[in-house]
Structure formats: C-alpha cells, structure tokens
Design a protein that fits this description.
Layout: E1 2-7, H1 22-38, E2 41-47, H2 51-67, E3 70-77, E4 86-88, E5 91-93, H3 99-103, H4 111-115, H5 120-125, H6 129-135, H7 144-158, E6 168-173, H8 175-186, E7 198-204, E8 207-214
Helix pairs in contact: 1-2, 6-8, 7-8
C-alpha cells in the first residue's frame, strides 16, 4: 500500500484556521489530476481537520475526478492527521505562529501569560519552528517520536485486509507530521516540504515500513 503523506497547500499565514490561497487551490487540483492519471481503482483522500488541510483535500479530489482514472473516495477527515497535540493551561492548542494566536485558543490566557512559559516563546522566535519542535526532548504535549508512532499506526491500519483495500491513499496533513515521519523512517529531518508534497510511505505486510521523499507531480 502506497501512502502519500502530503503537506497542505499554500496559506498566507498560520495565524488561525485560514483557507489556502487561490493559487494553492489550482495546484492541489493539478496534483489530483496527476493521481487520477497514474492510478486506477479507489483513491481514498484523507485530511486533517484544519481549513487548510480540508481545502487542499477537496481541490485534490476534484482533480482526481477530472482526470477520470481513479475513483475518488472522500475526502474525509482522519483524526490521526491532526497537528501535534500541544497543551497550554490544560487545553489542547494548535501550532500557530504568534503568542497572540496561542493565547486566543485558551479562555482567560493573555499573550503575556504565554510569553512567561517554557517552550512557546522559543517556538515562536525560532527561524525553523517545526525543526525546533522536532529536536525538543520534552515539549508540552507530543514530541516527534510520539507523532511518528501515531503516523506508523495510522499507516499500518490502512493496510488492514478488509474489502476494497486500496493500493494508494492520499493523506493531506501538516509539515510536523511529514517531518516527524521522515525522521523516523529515513533517519533524517527532510526539512519543510514544499506545498502539496511530502513523503511516499510504503506499507508491506512482509517488509519493514519504508519511505521516500515525494515531490508529487501534476498531470
């Protein structure tokens, strides 16, 4: 089973649950056309629950359908494809790009409160926030090893011997999951994936799970 674990399309910022850009809609559609041209049979399209992930999946699904090859299944939100779980004052928060955006997710918390804590100020100030999280040994929530284990379990479940088991699955997610999986399966940080690209994960009942960097192509 071939699992394409792809970063969502381009956004203008990560300050909140924002849509992808118009250019990103077109890119996702063209990438979907590529999948529809290369693969026949069912192509499940899964995504995380953020607006940017769902938008990307929806436009990619339209592209698969337009190509007329593969049969679109979904898109559907998959809980395993969410961003890493971080906790702030007992609340789960998404990875965002400002102290204000972190504070906005928790009632009664100010940006100044967030600035007084460990992890969050350093995360915001890092030029490579996801790389900094990837190397952090004790973030307030999931670390890279935990996220990689989540991705592995998710990938293995897609290969369960059930009726209609697909040969290929397209999963739209976020760069932390792609990079954590890359570190786990390739032994190195692959860096920030380009928009709508990431990893091709191979799941074989008779072989160890493997992966390769995948810059998927439009038709």
């Amino acid at each position: 089973m071939r699992l394409y674990l792809l970063r969502h399309g381009e956004v203008e910022s990560h300050r909140g649950d924002v849509p992808i850009t118009a250019a990103a809609e077109g890119q996702a559609f063209e990438v979907g056309q590529g999948f529809g041209s290369r693969y026949s049979g069912p192509i499940p399209i899964l995504s995380g629950d953020t607006r940017r992930a769902r938008d990307t999946a929806a436009n990619l699904a339209r592209g698969v359908a337009d190509a007329g090859g593969g049969q679109v299944v979904g898109p559907q939100v998959a809980f395993a494809l969410r961003n890493p779980d971080l906790y702030l004052a007992g609340a789960r928060v998404d990875m965002v790009s400002s102290l204000e955006a972190f504070a906005a997710q928790v009632d009664g918390i100010s940006p100044e409160d967030v600035a007084s804590l460990d992890f969050f100020p350093e995360f915001i100030s890092s030029p490579d926030r996801i790389g900094w999280w990837l190397r952090h040994e004790s973030p307030p929530g999931e670390d890279a090893r935990s996220v990689a284990a989540r991705v592995r379990s998710f990938a293995v479940s897609l290969n369960d011997p059930v009726p209609g088991r697909p040969e290929v699955v397209v999963a739209i997610t976020h760069s932390p999951l792609v990079r954590a999986a890359g570190l786990d399966l390739l032994g190195r940080d692959i860096g920030e994936p380009a928009w709508v690209s990431g990893l091709l994960v191979i799941v074989d009942d008779d072989q160890p799970m493997s992966a390769e960097v995948s810059d998927v192509e439009a038709r």
